[in-house]
């Protein structure tokens, strides 16, 4: 890096171009967003997934619907226009039947009278002002034939809707099927990703320009972040060939990579400026004293020795901190792979890979740019020449002094450490209290923002065509039950509280019989529906239970089942790494406790906002009565990793000072003063990044962005600036205690030296 900076820069440019081309263009097949799937998260082998698979296998071919609104079938003129043999509907009916792969075409007027057949009457809305045309494809079509048939059907139904509107026989027409819904969600994901980056990057750059006092230093982390984003897209694209990736993976993982790249670049650039200024000041003092200095550059093509030394020192100090931080975050995120849900496993693996990529940019690309920039970092910023900004930029652009706002804050905390510690703990517990009423949800079409065409189509079909909608809970008997057994099962199901009715049994084949259970509640994923699922499973009839509420129950149970292994691995790995860094067993325990509390507090506030619906008008969302199930796991894993990130930033400085002879309190006070600005600046930048994604139109991404931004804000303020110095002051020199038999191990394997 120091000897071949241009080669490193060129290598990263080529890597970014290759990764971007690989992910976003159809050079090697479908682009990244076309390869993503979406839907309710499931747990392989769970009852809800098994029921879903049985329903999918027995449902026949895919179905595409045309919803025609504003067409009053009680109006004789409308009926005449629609049933005219030469009219648009009759022509479309014939055209659709001739498409290869079409098995059936159904509309309420196929027999001329919408009341002639109950199955046809179900295609008319309850208010009689809309109807549906359904086209079903033949089961088992090859992928190419299925794609072609679906596209032909969609095209013809779209034209039919336009024709009916043009003939004043309808006011609107919309087409939908599973593929269209998935593409709509993926398109919204892509738009939200672009918008989030367009919001986050410029504001982050502005923040860092003020922090560093110039655009040159501020641009280094941004360059690293851009390389990390593009490289991350290529990494996720490669992962898509070995794992099924949900569309949320790319947004959640990208925002993590973006935030960490800026965080790490900020730390590297800040430490470089500090080291370079120290070396230059030393040389100036020596020259002033008349002592010859051979290290300074005096022209020629040779690299500036002071710049090279500053970069090497930076990588050896801040680089070690970045490496340790990335390692702890990667372990935390990878802990998601220990859960049985496919979505969490994909998030864990993809997240860990992107963390490694952020680390690579911080330790290679950013140092190469620093070598090429040289002493220009020490030149006065253009901003410092602006009268109104001169004082602010001058202070923030300099190396942090040993006495300032953070050291004064720490001194205040150290005067009353018990009061601050108890108060901070109490505040975090109060903020975490809404978690006691947490409800987990698995979003289906709720992912689509209200008002979008596909959401409006599906909502209209669900509310206006109850006979077309599925049951609230699906129950499958798998042991080829006879009529008596089915009758007994139906009777037992009907007796369950909140069950309104049970649909007639449907033979799914292979001895599987389906019973649709309809509830007397409005929310098929609410607490009452969840209670029904649990009650049905407690009947002891050996029935498989599926549906939205069942999926939520199974996913929540998978989190409980996977927590001991995932949490245990993360806690053990974090404890070991912090021990090797500090040589203490108390510091890791304290860090784990405080970080868990800060994450619980952020999730508590998120529950209060999104589950209970507070701030909905400000943040632009409609509460669905709970928090997306996988978002809870993501916030815990990612938030814990980010909290450890700032813990490492602070502890590395405190430990460095303590080993240098400073007392515990002095090391804490001076360590927070020297790292406080970096922690605050890094936190501000990453809050901006997450807040940019909190503007997402998709509720799960909005929840994740909000919760993670809040977690970082709490950790960088209440925890890092108050709780940590208070607890370290209370513990005193005991902070650095370890059993006698562990001390040689810590000295031999220390990550700090």
The profile of the biggest β sheet is: 5 strands, antiparallel
Count of individual beta strands = 11
**SSE class:** alpha+beta
Dominant shape: elongated
Count every helix, treating DSSP H or I runs of 4 or more residues as helices. 25
Fraction of helical residues: 55-70%
**Approximately how much beta-strand content do the residues carry?**
5-15%
Gyration radius (Cα, Å) is 31 Å
Residue-averaged pLDDT = 81
Low-pLDDT stretches are 295-301, 393-397
- Span between N and C termini? 21 Å
Characterization of the model:
The chain is of the alpha+beta class and about 750 residues long. Helix content is about 65%, strand content about 5%. It contains 25 helices and 11 strands. It has helices spanning about 5-25, 30-35, 45-60, 75-85, 90-95, 120, 145-165, 180-210, 215-240, 245-290, 305-335, 340-375, 390-395, 405-415, 415-430, 455-465, 485-495, 525-535, 550-580, 585-610, 615-620, 630-660, 665-695, 700-730, 745-750, and strands at about 65-70, 100-105, 130-135, 170-175, 440, 475, 500, 505-510, 510-520, 545, 625-630. The strands form 3 sheets. Strands 6, 7, 8, 9 and 10 form a 5-stranded antiparallel β-sheet that branches. A hairpin with a 2-residue loop joins β8 and β9. α9 (about 215-240) packs antiparallel against α10 (about 245-290). It is elongated and about 100 Å long. It starts with a helix and ends with a helix.
